[in-house]
UniProtKB/TrEMBL annotation:
This is HAD-like protein. Keywords: Hydrolase. SUPFAM superfamilies: HAD-like (SSF56784). Gene3D superfamilies: 3.90.1470.20, HAD superfamily/HAD-like. InterPro entries: HAD-like_hydrolase_phosphatase, HAD-like_sf, HAD_hydro_PyrdxlP_Pase-like, HAD_sf. Coiled coil: none annotated. It holds the Pfam family HAD. GO terms for molecular function: phosphatase activity. It comes from Calocera cornea HHB12733.
Length: 268
């Protein structure tokens, strides 16, 4: 079950960006990471590996984050700056991602099932909103994409896009965007909903212990950093490979066929 430690209002990081309203009347809310979770590969990894300093240095930095020797905020900024330093404009990056990033094959069905059953879906990302929105609209269509709330970082673009840098939502946090604060406000509600969270990587570590039911994506490329983190820290979770798998479990919980505790006990 989620961490029940009382929320210290003073611990809330300063946000440079607004939040959408929370769903106060919902019985269930699905919050999901974007890169590598809703998509089949991480868009920022794709940029870094192909246009920046490459996969070896990126993976080395990710492992440094897991080991606690560097913050995700600083490592991620270094990755993205390597792309800009190689002369790639921000608009070029958006176009490259729109051509190369694909949705998890089960996400459209999952999203539409959630809409039909009054389960709000919120994307919680450490990426930059213009790249995320560009890819989401391309893959889902403008109308459906515009219906989904997105909580993420932004970007500062100068010199007609030749110079650009990530604008962190929580610049004082070591996460850059502390995703737990997309979840924690729901715990303050008198009638709090059941919260599903879906993630895959190091940027999801701050949110991992706060969801009622945590789904951790397992990827064929072996970059399963959130799964390793949860195993090492004994955070109960359910592993999945596609949203088709996750939808079956969410359906059972929403329809009252299984409890969250029963799912976590079974691990599937």
């Amino acid at each position: 079950m989620p961490d029940s430690t009382p929320i210290d209002p003073g611990s809330r990081p300063h946000s440079t960006l607004p939040y959408p309203p929370i769903y106060k009347d919902a019985q269930f809310v699905a919050l999901s990471d974007w890169d590598g979770t809703i998509t089949t590969m991480d868009s920022n990894d794709f940029l870094t590996d192909n246009l920046g300093f490459g996969i070896e240095k990126r993976r080395a930095l990710n492992l440094e984050v897991l080991a606690g020797r560097i913050t995700f905020r600083d490592a991620f900024r270094e990755m993205l700056r390597s792309v800009a330093a190689n002369g790639h404009s921000f608009q070029e990056c958006v176009e490259v991602l729109k051509k190369n990033i694909k949705l998890d094959p089960g996400f459209k069905d999952f999203y539409r099932w959630c809409k039909e059953h009054d389960v709000p879906v919120v994307i919680v990302s450490s990426g930059m909103e213009p790249t995320l929105r560009g890819v989401l609209s391309t893959l889902l269509g403008d109308d459906e994409a515009s219906e989904i709330d997105v909580i993420c970082n932004s970007v500062v673009v100068e010199d007609d896009g030749k110079k650009w840098d990530i604008q962190y939502r929580h610049p004082d946090s070591g996460y850059g965007h502390d995703k737990s604060w997309a979840i924690l406000p729901y715990r303050e509600l008198a009638h709090r909903p059941t919260l599903f969270f879906f993630g895959d990587g190091v940027s999801d570590m701050s949110a991992a212990k706060h969801a009622d039911l945590l789904f951790v994506k397992i990827k064929a490329n072996g970059e399963n950093d959130l799964a390793n983190y949860c195993r090492e820290n004994k955070i109960r979770h359910v592993e999945f490979t596609s949203f088709h798998d996750a939808q079956a479990i969410v359906t059972d919980v929403v329809e009252g066929k299984r409890t969250v505790e029963a799912v976590l006990e079974a691990g599937k």
